[in-house]
Amino acid sequence: MAQFPASIVLAGAGRMGGAMLEGWLEGGLDPATVQVLEPHPSERLNALAARFGFALNPAPQTLRPPRALVLGVKPQTMAQAAPTLAPLAGPDGFVLSVLAGKTLDNLAAAFPGAGAVVRVMPNLPASIRRGVSVAVADARAGAQARAEASALLEAVGAVEWVDDESLIDAVTAVSGSGPAYVFHLVEAMAEAGVAAGLPRALSERLARQTVIGSGDLLRESPESAAALREAVTSPGGTTFAALQVLMREKDGMPALFAEAIAAAARRSRELSG
Ligand SMILES: NC(=O)C1=CN([C@@H]2O[C@H](COP(=O)(O)OP(=O)(O)OC[C@H]3O[C@@H](n4cnc5c(N)ncnc54)[C@H](O)[C@@H]3O)[C@@H](O)[C@H]2O)C=CC1
Ligand SMILES: O=C(O)[C@@H]1CCC=N1
Fold this sequence. Notes:
Keywords: Amino-acid biosynthesis, Cytoplasm, NADP, Oxidoreductase, Proline biosynthesis. This protein is an alpha/beta fold. It has 11 helices and 8 strands. The chain is elongated, with a radius of gyration of 21 Å. The chain binds 1,4-dihydronicotinamide adenine dinucleotide and (2S)-3,4-dihydro-2H-pyrrole-2-carboxylic acid. Residues 100, 172, 176-177 line the site of (2S)-3,4-dihydro-2H-pyrrole-2-carboxylic acid (A1CAB).
């Protein structure tokens, strides 16, 4: 595995920043090399700090530009946070941002001292080190910075690099937001089970375990999702009856997903600036 950056400042350790930090520390990052700025530490973050002993909200005068300045704040917070954080972006380091919508140009403008900028879209399964991240770097990022960024992302799951930054809006819509679609699927299946007569608690357990088991099967099977779907679907059987509704051209899942993902990608573009 590639080496972690020699020094890291993580600004914003909420759900995503905190998940990444946990993955780094579990993955062997030396806690002495990371400083965390988080105005509202969660219980989980405080417990992590107590366990690993990294610096949580150190005195501002002790901060120096690190090799990697990792941004985990909300896109809407960036304008307010950037002026305070910008002095931490030095020419020997890179900024790694997970902010939805914020482009390499936006980041370079907000952090003019940075040696390079890497824009990443991770997803929430990073919190159990099963995330998937897509990264794009600006032209100034050399092989070493890319390798160090990869090490940070590999600690929380799979990593893909792209050259075309414009793909990140669709990436955000598919894998960044995607876990929410799956969780909503569980909610919708459970609710439909209740409508079909199941006791609520049983329906919720069945919907949840079905998604868990199907996800595990996807991971372990070499078959495509389409082949696995076909394996469940007996000709003229119950699944076939359901899929005739779900795969309906006009208002089935493909049409709904096309609309939902286009909406998310559009929102990602709007968050730029
Ligand atoms: N939650 C998710 O599934 C994903 C989130 N993201 C991105 O991750 C970023 C963070 O999202 P979440 O973790 O969900 O939000 P969050 O609200 O849990 O975390 C943001 C954190 O930033 C902190 N913060 C606010 N101002 C700050 C400042 N000036 N300095 C340092 N920290 C500050 C807040 O206290 C908060 O804990 C967003 O930009 C989002 O687009 C990307 C992919 C997936
Ligand atoms: O909803 C959002 O804007 C963020 C980015 C991807 C997942 N959560």
